[in-house]
Amino acid sequence: MDAKANVVTSKAETILGITPILQRLAYHYLCRGFGEHSIRDWPYDKVVVRELYPWQCNPNDPHEYQGGIVVEFHKDGKRERYVEFGVRRVGAGGHDAIKIVSSE
């Protein structure tokens, strides 16, 4: 599937400069981790990745948890653009952590 097809940008977001390219760039910095990052070849001075809200339970579904992360693009010391991400668990795996002992 084409990656462009997965990015939905409203007219209002486009007017604000939240383009599909900026959203992909935000995801790139999200993958780099929390903190401040330098950025080159863009009209921004730095990118800041920080927690938007902590990992918490959905009050309507006690088995669903979500956290929030925001990627901010700064210019001349001011936040010019930001992209917010809601982070949920979509899978898990690993080696057995518990051994089942038969009672027989």
List the strand order in the largest sheet.
Answer: 1-2-3-4
User: How many strand elements?
Assistant: 4
Percentage of residues assigned to helices: 10-25%
Distance between the termini: 51 Å
Percent in strands: 35-45%
From the alpha-carbon coordinates, what is the Rg to the nearest angstrom? 19 Å
User: What's the main sheet like?
Assistant: 4 strands, antiparallel
Helix-strand string? HHEEEE
What is the number of helical segments per DSSP (H or I, 4+ residues)?
2
* Poorly predicted parts: 1-5
Assign an overall shape: elongated
Helix/strand-derived category reads: alpha+beta
Mean pLDDT figure: 87
Structure characteristics:
alpha+beta, 2 helices, 104 residues, four-stranded antiparallel sheet, disordered N terminus, 40% strand
Describe this structure in words.
It is a single chain. The relative contact order is 0.16. The protein is elongated. The chain has a four-stranded antiparallel β-sheet, with helices on one face. The N terminus is likely disordered. Strand 2 and strand 3 form a beta hairpin. It is α+β, with helices and mostly antiparallel strands and 104 residues long.
